[in-house]
From TrEMBL:
InterPro entries in the record: DUF7347 (IPR055771), WH-like_DNA-bd_sf (IPR036388), WH_DNA-bd_sf (IPR036390)
DUF7347 domain sequence ranges: 8-73
Protein name: DUF7347 domain-containing protein
The keyword Transmembrane is assigned to this record: yes
Naturally occurring in which organism (per UniProt): Saccharolobus islandicus (strain REY15A) (Sulfolobus islandicus)
Gene3D superfamilies found in the cross-reference section: Winged helix-like DNA-binding domain superfamily/Winged helix DNA-binding domain (1.10.10.10)
Keywords: Membrane, Transmembrane, Transmembrane helix
Ranges annotated as spanning the membrane: 89-109, 115-134, 146-174, 180-198, 210-231, 251-273
Source organism, top-level taxon: Archaea
C-alpha cells in the first residue's frame, strides 16, 4: 500500500491535484481543469490514478481521509510548501479592506480630493484581491465573501451620506423613460466584485447564497411592483455573475429565472401604470 501511495504522489500533477483539493475542500471537474490548466485527457488519467485518495459526491471531487492524511504528510515533509495563513487569507482581507475604504469614500463626496484618494485606494485593493484570488489558492472566510455580495452595491448608502438618493439603489429604471440610471462610483466596484471575486466563493455555501439572493430579490419585488420610480437591478447582476461558472447557474437557475421575471414584469407594470 505504501508503494502504491509513493507511485501516486511521485507525479507532480497528481501532487498539485491533491493539494488543490486539500485547499479547496471540494471542487467540480471544470474548476480543476481550468485552475490547474490541464487537458481533459490528462485530468481524467490522473483522477483515475488518484481514486484511492479521492471521493466523488455528485459533481464534486474531494479528498477522503487517506487523501487528506497523505497531503498533510507531504506538506510537513516539505515536498510541497504549504501556503502560510497570511497568504491564504490575503485576497479575502483585501476585499474586506476595499469595502471599508469604499464605505469611507461614500462620506467624502463633498470633499472631492479626499474622495478620489480614498476611492482609488478601494479600487486598487479590490483589483489586487481579484488578482491574488486567481493566481494562488485561497481558503477561509468563504461565508464572509458571500455576505459581502449584498454590501458592495450599497456601500455608499451604509455610510448615510447626504447624496444617498443618487446611490441607492445603485441601478435604477426610471418609470417615465424606462432608462437605466446608475451611479458610476458604486457600479465599478460592484462589477469588479460580482464578476471577479464572488464567482470563486458562490458555490461554497449554497444555502447562504440562496438566502441572500432571496432577500435582495424580495426587496426588488417591493420596489418593482410599487408606485415608486425605481427598480433595483442588483439581483440581476448577481444572476449574471453565476454565468462565470456553469455549475453556478445550475445551482441557482430558479432564482435567476425569477429575477429576470420580476424585472421584466416590473418594467411592464411601471410602463402601464405610468404613475
Amino acid at each position: 500500500m505504501k508503494d502504491n501511495f509513493t507511485r501516486i504522489i511521485k507525479d507532480k500533477i497528481r501532487r498539485e491535484i491533491l493539494i488543490y483539493l486539500y485547499n479547496k475542500n471540494r471542487a467540480i471537474y471544470s474548476d480543476i481543469l481550468h485552475d490547474l490548466n490541464l487537458s481533459t485527457g490528462k485530468l481524467n488519467y490522473h483522477l483515475k490514478t488518484l481514486q484511492p485518495l479521492i471521493t466523488k459526491e455528485g459533481d464534486y471531487y474531494m479528498l477522503n481521509e487517506k487523501g487528506r492524511q497523505l497531503v498533510e504528510i507531504m506538506l510537513s515533509l516539505g515536498n510541497d510548501k504549504r501556503e502560510s495563513e497570511y497568504t491564504k487569507y490575503l485576497a479575502q482581507f483585501l476585499a474586506i479592506a476595499s469595502l471599508i475604504f469604499l464605505f469611507i469614500a461614500g462620506g467624502l463626496l463633498s470633499k472631492i480630493n479626499e474622495f478620489y484618494t480614498i476611492y482609488s485606494i478601494s479600487i486598487i485593493l479590490l483589483l489586487a484581491s481579484a488578482f491574488f484570488l486567481y493566481t494562488q489558492e485561497v481558503k477561509g472566510l468563504e461565508n464572509a465573501m458571500i455576505f459581502l455580495s449584498i454590501l458592495f452595491p450599497y456601500a455608499f448608502y451604509l455610510n448615510g451620506h447626504i447624496f444617498v438618493y443618487f446611490v441607492l439603489p445603485a441601478y435604477l429604471i426610471i418609470t417615465s423613460s424606462v432608462s437605466i440610471h446608475y451611479y458610476i462610483y458604486e457600479l465599478i466596484p460592484t462589477l469588479i466584485y460580482y464578476f471577479g471575486i464572488l464567482p470563486k466563493f458562490m458555490n461554497y455555501n449554497e444555502k447562504l447564497m440562496i438566502t441572500l439572493w432571496t432577500i435582495i430579490l424580495g426587496i426588488d419585488v417591493l420596489s418593482s411592483f410599487s408606485y415608486s420610480y425605481l427598480i433595483d437591478l442588483t439581483p440581476l447582476l448577481l444572476g449574471l455573475s453565476t454565468l462565470i461558472n456553469r455549475e453556478s447557474i445550475q445551482n441557482y437557475k430558479i432564482l435567476f429565472i425569477l429575477t429576470l421575471t420580476v424585472i421584466i414584469v416590473g418594467i411592464l407594470f411601471k410602463i402601464i401604470i405610468k404613475p
